[in-house]
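Backbones bend. Our protein:
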Amino acid sequence: MAKIGVFNTLKAIRQVEFGFFLDGGDEGDILLPNRYVPKDLQIDDEIEVFLYLDSEDRVVATTQKPLAKLKECAYLECVDVNKIGAFLNWGLAKDLMVPYSEQKKRMEPGQRYLVYLYLDKVDQRITATAKVNKYLTDSGASLKANQEVDLLVGEKTDLGYKCVVNNFCWGMIFYSDAKDKNLRLGQKLKAYVKRVREDGRVDLSFNKHGFESLGPLAEKILAILKDNKGYMAISDKSSPELIKKVFGCSKREFKMAIGSLYKNRQILLDKQSIRLADK
């Protein structure tokens, strides 16, 4: 069954002068206008399209990629306002409406806003709201430590960056965990759950808990190990001269780097060699 507000894979069933009609099941035949039709599309081919309502409330298909789908958050720019609401650029030909009742403050053209996309129950239109807390929770109790998650940077606070996690809850990346990241509002990226507190609130990190980020030397050691089938007859017991020759660093720097790799469980150590942990 074809669904509005998400991507669907539909079959092309007939061609007309102004495009192709796709089989939308219960939604009926759905037009894919010529400007979105790939040159090699044939009858009975399947194609991935995004569905939404046009200005005449007809379900229409597009191969364009919107900046957000149904039940997702996004940071979008307001491009127009009129007597019924504001309109945001979400990457499609038809702008996304935010009714005045769904604005926290009057939106202005040229400004960007955090919104959530939902399906209006009355007219079945994809609509946006700036009142995102109606759809987001403060509790991420279903998440686990070290779980990889999708983030949208939503707000800058005194403690750090408040982020939307997996489009369903809030999480926090403290400034101490976001060093050198130069985060900006609206940015989408991957991160890890650092911890889930007793009240369900989520702390986030860009490294797995207990894993250290690797410096250039540690990365170099890994690369050399991989080029040598995961094994090298060199260790922290080797001479400073040999370490300098192979890795171009001091013995102290070498020991710090392999200590980080060992703590991250990426290498195995013995008195005479190092090897990749998965070898």
About this structure: The mean pLDDT is 92. The first helix runs from residue 216 to 227. The longest strand covers residues 7-16.
